[in-house]
Amino acid sequence: MSDLKRVLGEAVGAAFAAEGLSADHGRVTVSDRPDLADFQSNGALAAAKAAGRNPREIAAKVVEHLKSDPRLASIEIAGPGFVNMRLTGEALTERARQIAADPRAGAPAVEQPRRVLVDYGGPNVAKPMHVGHLRSSIIGESLKRLFRFLGDEVVGDAHFGDWGFQMGLLIVAASDENPAWARVAEQDEGEIEDLGLDVLDRLYPMAAGRAKEDKDYRDRARRATAELQSGKPGYLRLWRHFVEVSRTALKREFAALGVEFDLWKGESDADPLIPQMVEDLKAKGLLVEDQGAQIVRINREGDKRELPPLLVISSEGSAMYGTTDLATVLDRRRSFDPHLILYVVDQRQADHFEQVFRASYLVGYAEEGSLEHLGFGTMNGPDGKPFKTREGGVLKLHDLIEMAREKARQRLHEAGLGAELSPEDFEGTADKVAVAAIKFADLQNFRGTSYIFDLDRFTSFEGKTGPYLLYQSVRIKSLLRKAEGEGHAAGPIVIDEAAERELALTLDAIDAAMTEAYAKRAPNFLAEHAYRLSQSFSKFYAACPVLAAPTPQLRASLLALAQTTLRQMETVLALLGIATPERM
Ligand code: ARG
Questions:
Q1: CATH number of the CATH domain containing 11
Q2: Distance 347 CA to ligand 1 centre (A)
Q3: 371-374 and 340-344: which strand pairing?
Q4: Binning pLDDT at 50, 70 and 90, where does residue 131 land?
Q5: Segment 39-95, tens digit of pLDDT
């Protein structure tokens, strides 16, 4: 099944080819003047330039070829050589019926499924998640769902930060705090008691702050990190406890966001592969000694600026962030052998990934180009700088979700839903509204763009917001419930009125939206489509009163359009990680 845009593009391409011109000029776009045309081709201009001919003359030839195409109600030249096309009601009817009958609501599928690993979320032991992790989770979850939906075999991995310097810091901090924990650490004796999340939350920032000022403290933590990594039993036991406590809490937070990982592996899981990796690097002559450390130089000819080498083993003998990332590429190759790994991580880590990728290609762990860093911008405060709490600290994910929920409750009360919904449904809906608000606000921007956090605007039921889309979906649901209650069923679609035409064309555009989101690894194209769909539906609903339709046939057709719109809307929203409530 193919979308109208593509089918038409092929026909226009064939017309160019018949004139001895490249079929590539045939690409059509949705018309920017819907009052004049549905689609347009601007190819005659480029073709004329390439062939040294007159664009209007080429456009006239193309029109000649397409004039008798039964799908076209009209085809005309405009301006210097644009070709405007309008489809017949029959062509739109046929396509709308296809989409209505399609469980995937018109969505495309990849031709050659690949194995894709999405590395996202990236939380760390003991460090509370902040809004950077929020963006990674939201974007990564959406990409994982999109790739999977289009047919790839996809695994999402949280890549838990559980093996670096912060672990050494925690061991030192815990040992100083409580002699019983110190005994576990040093002698591997006794039990670990009363060391919960609250303790970790307190110890970590304290230790991190102290390490910045106090060199001795920092050195102790470095040594502890190295000793942990070389397997000191008491350190390992304490470490396992930290990991467990953190993971349980983090999983709860992710669940609140509707984010679920297939794999919850950590940096530490790559540790056993490091000796092999070091061998591989040595065998290829890639590992060099530099001031007591082992590094890999990854510079390439033509680099515009000097990239620092990848630090593999520090002078203390520790594995670094880049070490575990490189070993993880090997681990993933052995376990899943992915065609593609997508790293959804803050743009500020671009250099790190460039180093890891180049080293992976050099040592032969991945094929050139099969590792992609999908960087994203920051969520900023009103001052344009990364968002801070009123106290000046980083906003914790947990607090952000709570804030959004509170705001959502307030909005629902304003809309008079406090009395209408049972307390349970009210909470469930507030939850969905909060998640939709946060996610849509994030995903409507291209991921590389930074945006300003404005909870008031994000949670509004009007404008380009998540709650607005939920509201539109709920409107359709209640229309369908009402129709069912009155005994009306959906029937064959017939496209006739302008508002129906526009809705059918928007439904058709799902193919292009998903194809683009997939190619650019950019969910904002899905978000944009969801918004356009809700707008087209709104116009349609205003122009075509469904339940009051003059004939049963028309009502059945309008109901089918409404049903199809809802299915497509829920399909797209689900790929954004947004679920719709029944009432709001
Ligand atoms: N834990 C890291 C952080 O908080 C993100 C991990 C990203 N993934 C990776 N393979 N390095 O910054």
A1: 3.30.1360.70
A2: 11
A3: parallel
A4: confident
A5: 999 999 999 999 999 999 999 999 999 999 999 999 999 999 999 999 999 999 999
d(CA 159, ligand 1 centre) in Å: 7
The DSSP H or E segment spanning 149 is helix 131-149
Give the residue, out of 155, 325, 349, with the most ligand 1 atoms within 8 A of its beta carbon, to mutate for a pocket test.
349
> Structural domain of residue 197, as residue ranges?
165-256
Q: For 359-390, write each residue's pLDDT tens digit.
A: 999 999 999 999 999 999 999 988 888 888 87
* Cα-to-centroid distance, 181 and ligand 1 (Å): 28
CA distance from start to end of the chain: 35
Boundary-marking domain end, from 256, 291, 319: 256
DSSP string computed for 161-191: B-SSHHHHHHHHHHHHH-HHHHHHHHH--S-
Rounded distance from Cα 445 to ligand 1 centre (Å): 22
Residue-wise pLDDT tens digits, 443-461: 999 999 999 999 999 999 9
Of ligand 1's listed atoms, the one at least distance from the Cα of 353 is: 11
Query: How many angstroms does the Cα of residue 161 sit away from the middle of ligand 1?
Result: 6
The verdict on 80 and 64 lying in the same domain is yes
Cβ(129)–Cβ(123) under 8 Å? yes
Please, what is the Cα angle at 155 between 150 and 161, to 5 degrees?
140
Q: Report the distance separating Cα 300 and Cα 81, nearest Å.
A: 46
Question: Which residue has the least CA distance to atom 8 on ligand 1?
Answer: 122
In tens, the pLDDT along 94-105 reads 999 999 999 999
Residue 159 has pLDDT above 80, yes or no: yes
- CB-based pocket (< 6 A), ligand 1: 119, 122, 124, 159, 161, 325, 343, 345
Ligand 1 atom index nearest CA of 349: 12
Residues 220 and 306 in one domain: no
- Answer for the pair 326, 356: CB distance below 8 angstroms, yes or no: yes
Which of 265, 310, 330, 345 best tests ligand 1's pocket when mutated (most atoms within 8 Å of CB)? Answer: 345
Please check whether residues 149 and 243 belong to one and the same domain: no
Mark whether 463 and 524 lie in a shared domain: yes
Residue pair 374/139 in contact by the 8 Å Cβ criterion: yes
Which ligand 1 atom is nearest residue 160's CA? 1
For residue range 475-524, what is the model confidence (pLDDT) as tens digits? 999 999 999 999 999 999 999 999 999 999 999 999 999 999 999 999 99
Tens-digit pLDDT profile for residues 318-338: 889 999 999 999 999 999 999
Distance (angstroms) between ligand 1 centre and the Cα of 395 equals 18
Measured CA to CA, the distance from residue 506 to residue 534 in angstroms comes to 10
Instruction: Identify whether residues 153 and 194 lie together within a single domain.
Output: no
Q: 148-172 as b/e, with b when 16 or more CB fall inside 10 Å?
A: bbbebebbbbbbbbbbbbbbbbbbb
Task: Establish if 328 belongs to a structural domain.
Answer: yes
Question: Distance from CA of residue 501 to its chain's centroid?
Answer: 31
Residue 241 lies in a domain: yes
Output b/e per residue, 16-49; b: 16+ Cβ within 10 A: beebebebebbbbebbeeeeebbbbbbbbbbbbe
Distance, CA of 118 to chain centre: 10
- Whether 565 is covered by a domain: the verdict is yes
Domains of the chain: total: 4
Confidence (pLDDT) at 1: 63
